[in-house]
Amino acid sequence: MATSHVEVPGEPTKTVTSLVETATGTIQGFPTISKIHQHLCAFHFYADDMTRQVEAHHFCSHQNEDMRQCLIYDGPGAEARLIGVEYIVAEGQFLALPDEEKPLWHSHEYEVKSGVLFMPGVPGAVERRDLEKLSKTYGKTIHFWQVDRGDALPLGLPSLMMAFTRDGQLDDKLAQDVENRYGVSFTKERDNRAYMSGPDHGIHPLANGNGKGLKMELREVHLPSLRSVPRVFVS
């Protein structure tokens, strides 16, 4: 889906707020954000409901060659809302995870090779150079804002998200809308990326929810206080 037109509640930004923002933006540095070097557009679905599908714009930075982290927005513009995060790791890092952790991660091979994951505005030859690597990775995605149901604010529990793994899962209307707005052809890119390969050891059977639906739930637990926790002092 494109950026929703649901209004975020609150007063319009005042002139004095804008002036303060301009001043702080000039004085302060933002090294964490300035590391962002890449915009990926893709699609996610809720891990407990594949019928709920959203357009997701990833703004990513590399921690190193094997790990990148992405802020996810519901659109590419200045008014887009921050709806989630995704962590992307190389195959070796994924394989080293505990088995109980692996189902929370999804593979990227289908997304890349089918053409539905792309870098808006980036020439194909440049784009494919990076996607060759991305096709072999795994991602863990959490969304905090359910924009697909029209929420004006981030409500409820965070949602584990997944990515598509085969044809017939992505809603045709959603795909066509994105193709039209960005002037891309998923079919053409599928052909251009046919030479790419996924993880060297194949997609792990525990990835992608282990083939099951997954949903986060909230439960009450005992909350230790500082007084009940033994304190150790080292001199």
TrEMBL record:
<dbReference type="Pfam" id="PF06884">
    <property type="entry name" value="DUF1264"/>
</dbReference>
<comment type="similarity">
    <text>Belongs to the OBAP family.</text>
</comment>
<protein>
    <submittedName>
        <fullName>Oil body-associated protein 1A-like</fullName>
    </submittedName>
</protein>
<dbReference type="InterPro" id="IPR010686">
    <property type="entry name" value="OBAP-like"/>
</dbReference>
